[in-house]
Write a structure and sequence with these properties.
Layout lengths: L1 E3 L7 E2 L8 E8 L8 E8 L4 E2 L7 E8 L2 E2 L5 E2 L4 E4 L8 E2 L4 E8 L10 H11 L3 E4 L2 E4 L7 E3 H10 L14 E3 L7 E4 L2 E9 L4 E8 L4 E5 L2 E12 L2 E3 L4 E4 L4 E16 L19
Antiparallel strand pairs: 1-22, 2-3, 3-4, 4-11, 5-10, 6-9, 6-11, 7-8, 9-15, 12-13, 13-14, 16-17, 17-18, 18-23, 19-23, 20-21, 20-22, 20-23
Helix pairs in contact: 1-2
């Protein structure tokens, strides 16, 4: 088990291959080079942040804490909403009507394509700048071998891996936007309620909300992440406060205890049993 306090994590500039202002705190990350690699981050983007219509070969969840993002034909992710962006599915272009603050999980999906860590992506981005420039989320090549104009994320991935990007076959037609305000709380224990917002793919990744009344406790288990949105408590004698992240692996469990009414965001990571890193190469990171 891992418990991470947001204030203990450095805020860093990122996404240089996209347009506009972007900062993030990486709270938890997985194991490099494995299909189940992931990154959980607190992400801040300015109203000048943008991205072209594109797709990824990994899955991602975005929970909008503050602000909103427009994805053109795919709709608007508003404050308090959860968005699921499946691997292989196009979305955008993205613009921000306002500054945004999100809790983002990017992770290797059901195809087994994996996920690269931000440090590897940053290195690839810097190397590509020797051959061209990133502008408005697109890489424009001025020298060297390769496509003259390509999505920035794809350009980095292809540079890192030395081969053409192959996207997984889409399992969905579009991103899925969920509004928790339209869901009811369901009692799952004494003083404990849940909003299960969605479970996706045959590998069962999921997103939802968990609410504990003051004095209540709840045992959680399985491969996933829990982030405190509001309230306070503890787990295994470690403090839980706003934006504390708890990470459990497949065979781990812990008890969440609320000293004040507490609401947590839950991201369930997919079960990728039977998929080996030797069969599937990892993919690159981009918001």
């Amino acid at each position: 088990m891992k418990v991470v306090q947001a204030e203990d994590v450095e805020r860093k500039r990122g996404l240089e291959h996209r347009g506009g202002t972007f900062y993030a705190r990486t709270l938890v990350q997985g194991t490099q080079g494995t299909p189940g690699n992931f990154k959980l981050s607190l992400s801040e983007s300015g109203h000048d942040h943008s991205g072209p219509r594109h797709r990824h070969n990994f899955d991602q969840f975005r929970f909008m804490v503050k602000g909103s993002s427009s994805f053109d034909r795919d709709g608007v992710l508003k404050e308090g909403m959860l968005g699921y962006f499946p691997e292989g599915v196009h979305y955008g272009p993205q613009t921000n009507p306002s500054d945004t603050f999100l809790i983002v999980l990017q992770f290797g999906g059901a195809s087994g394509s994996g996920y690269l860590l931000p440090s590897e992506v940053k290195a690839g981005t810097e190397e590509l700048k020797k051959f061209g420039e990133f502008r408005d989320g697109v890489f424009y090549r001025q020298s060297g071998e390769g496509k003259k104009q390509v999505d920035g994320f794809q350009a980095v991935w292809e540079h890192v891996h030395g081969r053409a990007m192959e996207y997984p076959k889409p399992r969905y037609d579009a991103p899925v936007f969920m509004d928790p305000a339209s869901f009811d709380w369901v009692s799952i224990g004494d003083g404990v309620q849940e909003k299960l917002l969605g479970t996706f793919t045959e590998r069962r990744c999921e997103g939802g909300l968990l609410k504990l009344e003051a004095g209540a406790s709840h045992r959680v288990s399985g491969r996933g992440l829990w982030v405190v949105l509001d309230g306070a408590g503890s787990t295994s004698r470690q403090a839980l406060r706003q934006y504390t992240a708890v990470h459990l692996e497949k065979d781990e469990e812990t008890v969440l205890e609320a000293s004040a009414a507490m609401i947590l965001l839950h991201y369930g990571l997919p079960d990728l049993s039977g998929i080996s890193s030797a069969q599937h190469l990892p993919a690159a990171a981009a918001e």
